[in-house]
Structure formats: structure tokens, C-alpha cells
Amino acid sequence: MGNTRLHPMAHIARRMFELLEPICLVTYLADECHEELAALGHRGYWDGYFASRAAPLGRVPAHVVHAAFYNFADGEAARHIPRAWETIPPEASLAARQRGSAASLRRILGAGTADSPGLLRAADLTTKAATSAPTEGRVMYAGMRTLEIPGDPVARLWHSATMLREHRGDGHIAALVGARIGGTEAHVLSALEQGIHPPESFGRIHHLPKERLATVMDGLRERGLIDSDGHFTDAGRATKQRIETLTDELATQPYAALSPAELDELITELEPITATLVAAGSR
Question: What CA–CA distance (Å, rounded) separates 21 from 149?
């Protein structure tokens, strides 16, 4: 974090992100969730993605989903919403998402870990954190908070980790908006941070029209965030770092509900779970 002064809990928020993200990634990378959504009749990956992730918001129009998700190009949400809900109720997509994600975790972790007291304790502490934060200004998190908490420990761990992921994502969007970084611009900066060059080749944006990408790159150059070759400038790298630092700081509130001993216990219980998921690529 360089010389940036951090909220005392920001390091915890970053560590928890590192530990919880592999749990959430089964939803997007493993087969079971995709298969459950396809079995409902969703046409392809993105129909299921938009239908199930946006479902906690209710049957809102596409432009509301676009605003809440933030980082998709204009028109991408509208290709799936509301059509994906017209014959498949949002509640069915939500249930399929949970079933598939929990099944993936069980498969990857194995019965020994999935049924262990350590996972149960991790699920309980993650849920305590995930249900404690204010919802104001956190649209996706607020939507998740309206849902019933699963009784099964594996499903509960996934559900609560996903709540915390959406809470963090809402804060990340606030940080991006404050820095005047749009959704596509955010992907460019993320690509550069990952060492991807040219950043336009990044998987999340490479399919966009070349004219659209050129406009985004030109705008970042005009602001001095990237150079003529499409690499970070010092100002661009500093901007990206400020966004990440603020994202960590805005993600701290849920963890204030846990005592220092509970935080230590949660990290200890999550570490072997996360290591197994990372080794499997969460798929």
C-alpha cells in the first residue's frame, strides 16, 4: 500500500477478500452452477449469470441491472434482462445458483472438509460478519440481505461469502465513481495491473467494438492515466492504488462485528479451505 495511511481494519478486509473470493468463484468457474442454470432453460452462460446474480434486486429493468453491476458495456444487460426472467422465475435461478455453487464446493473440498467442524465454524463466523453491515448505499449487498440464509453449512458459507463479495463490490463501485473511472475503464486499469498488454485484449472487454475501446483508451490518455503505448503512467498506477485502498477501507464494516479472537479463528479455519480451492482453480 506504499505510504498510504490505512484504516486499521483495511488489512483484515483485504485478507478476507483473498480468503473468500475462491469460495465465490465456483459460481462462475465450476460446472455445477452452469449445469443447474442450463437445466432450467437458460440459453448460455450469460443468461444464467445475469438472471441469477440480478435476481435479489427483483424484476428490475435492464438499466437498473446495468447501473448496479456497473462494469458491463452499454446494452449487455439488456441482452439478457428481462428476457431471462420471462419464462424462468428469478427465484428458480437463485435456487439453482445456490445448489450448483454448494455442490461445487462439496466436490472440490471433499466430504472430510465439507462436513468438518472447522467449515461449520467458518460458515457461522462468515455469516455473522455478512449479516452485520449497514445496507445504505450497497444495492447488491442489500439485495442479498433479503434472501434466506441456508441451513446447510456449505451452502451457508458460499451464501455469506457471496454477500460479503457484493458488499465489497458495492464499495468498489463507489471508489470508481469517486475517481471518475467508468466500468470499461476499470477493466483497462485492472488488465494493466495484471500485466496484460495491450489491455484491450483483456477477456472482459476484448469483444467490444474497436471504436468503443479506442474511445476509452483515448480518454485515459487524455487524463494522463496511460501513456501513448497503453501502459500505466505513474498517475494511472497511483489512481488504481487509491481505488484499491479505498475499496479495502470501505469493506471493513462487516468485520467489525467479529472480535479479534473470532477474526483470528475465522482466518485459521478458512485458510485450508481456500488453499484447496485455489489449488483446484475453484473449478
Answer: 19
